[in-house]
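Re-run with default settings, no changes from the original entry. Doing this only to confirm the output is reproducible before filing.
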Amino acid sequence: MRKILIALSSVLLVTASCTKDFEKVNTNPLFPDEHQRTLDGLASVGIFPSFIAGIIPTGTAKAGTEAQNNYQVTSCMTGDIWSGYVGVGTQWDGGISTPNFYIKEGRRSGVFKTMLESTMLSFLQIKAANHDVKLENGVQVFHKKGITDQATFSVAQIIKVMGMHRLTDLFGPAPYSRIGGGNLIAPYDSQESIYRSMLAELQEAVETLNRYKLDGGDKILGDSDPLYQGDTEKWMKLGNSLMLRLAMRVRYADAALCQSYVTKATTNPGGLITELGDIAKLQTNGRFIFKNSYWILRTYNEANMGASIYSLMKGYNDARIDKYFTKRTINGNNDYFAVRMGSREPKAKYTDYSEVNITEATPTYWFKASEVQFLLAEAALYGLISSDTAKNYYQNGIALSFKENGLEAGTYATTPGVPVRYVDPARSDYNVEPVSTINKRWDSETTTEAHLEQIITQKYIANFPLGLESYAEWRRTGYPRMMPPVTNMTNVGATNISNDGKSGGVRRMPFSIEEYTLNRNNMSEAVNLLGGNDNAATDVWWDKKSK
């Protein structure tokens, strides 16, 4: 059973620590001692660096490749592939793997455990350290402490939501509200219930951080914040921006819930992530050393350019392509060469194809300023806000994305451009026509649906390499249209991607056999909450649009 085990390395991953005090090391964090309860918000701050680094697995100064391998399992082999960002030969798992919709049991259990444990273990420690925890009638009851503890816990809530929405977006129902007591084996909540809880928690977190700031708390977490260096207002911006992301995610499933939290996110104190300095990202600074997890995939030759993003960026003559991928030379032609999803060629074939242009020093992004503009563009397109036009937000998002990559957009947004066909220089039978004809110039399209495709397509380009986010948006909206895999060898019921590139494919990750074994008393209800079979063809709750 997955118990909450307190290891010093997981608590203080990148900060110095003292290990001489045996009693201190072996204190149960779910029941802090009296001294810890007097530290006024500081008892848990040492946990935050490892907590933050684990949400999107990011390497640290600590030796080894555990974080990079966790990233490969949770992100590269799922959302990065299924979003069309990355293409690889199916050398994984003996040549049959996630690029052709075959998902081994070890992959399913690895994704689930890594995401759940990396988020909830640290969160529960922080929750206990920042509350007065009492046993009342045999049940743990968490009583609020002072405003510093409340604000510290609010930051942990935002981080938890960032991690858990990635898990529920992959699987659907998940353990959430009833996790506790030192045990991650718990009953499942429906995805609708999880989303309602996450949105409410974000609202509570922002309100608490605002009270803390008004009370003079401009800084939070001391020196233990690798994301925002303790800037309280930037945590509020992230909370509001994440709220906006999740609110738009449920637009087709619950219009009223969407509208309610879009309004809150856009009017709450603190504002949204709108400038480069607000971006949530992990990068090496004077205190912390971080290593982007993609670098090791490049050394494995397992992170090539995907065919879907190739079709878009080449067709749009997009200067960001040089920031995202490497140029290579094949048959004397120096250009960008992508790998189509589900290719079954030997791994050696792709040695000379374009790779993801990421080094150890590249930041690991959580939330970009450009994404907010595209979220606002969709909200304006459907009348959820009236602060500006969808066109202006769309063009602002493009301009910000170019700036995020050290470029200027110039006339990109006002110049026509459409996707191009994919060409494999070694296998002409892998060539495929573009699945989209969407023009990047706003005025070249006239319908609301076409404008939505423009918005999501540009958000997709801007959000690279956040594959899980773009994979969720493709399932929600049908955009950007995905090129189908060369082969579909599914063992989990995934259908072929439709000819128009908008539907089919892997709609969700099935629950693991290990979870059926370890959590057998709760799995029948978990499947009932799905509203369908536990396979890759069943839609998650928010995936309601007819495509």
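The chain has a mean pLDDT of 91. The chain has one domain: 8-295+359-530.
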